[in-house]
Amino acid sequence: MSLPRPLLALTAAAVTTVLTLGTAQLAAGSVPAAPVTTVRAATGPPTDDQLRSALLTATELGPDFTEVPADPGSTPDPGSSPAPEAEPEPGAGASPVTGCDALRALLNSTGAHSPSRAPHQEVEFDGPDGNPMVTESLTAEEPERLNADFAAATAAFADCRSLTFTDSTGEAVTFTVTPLTLGDRKEAPAVRLDGTFAGVRLNGFLGIERLGGVALAFGFFQRDSGDARLASLYYRAAVAKAERTLGVQAGSTAAPGAHV
Fold this sequence. Notes:
nine-stranded antiparallel beta sheet, disordered N terminus, alpha+beta
């Protein structure tokens, strides 16, 4: 399981935006759209198409949001072997992160699909001037691997207290990390990150949820605000849509067919 777009990349984008635009106001939120049709498979794991249909859309987030086009290089060639994960290098378009090894590993693994090329879909949205940013991913994995991944993410969220992100220019932002309840289930791991750059407040939220054999990962990043309400609204909407579309209750470890 990998988190959607890493906060280190979000931080780099936020730093650039802060320097270019200054302090912009947080985009006003809206209530996500109505329920969708369930398209789960009768047997077996969900397909890529089914996972894609379970992700949020820009329309559901609100009229001011746009979907960020996927990076062609992030989609693996089905006939190729997965490349080994590597730490990002300064000046290579990614920002290194230090502190909290377990959470750092999760953030640096973002975008790396399962070695077995399991069904995986992700999406990223920008609000006006890139504020706020919302990311979501859904990954179907074998039970044993999902158990291990979820346990590692849960431990990382619980143990981390501080992360420092440094962009390719050497600018650094240190975030305090605080566990919280982002959605309706207290058992679902989530954290908030708070930092300041050039006098501008930067704030992020990460949440993960399990729906049978599918892992949902959610990210929300904003500047000039620390309000959790919009992040919680969109996280709840993401979980609810995945539940409806995949036909699995959040927190369940059973296969979708058990809930038909």
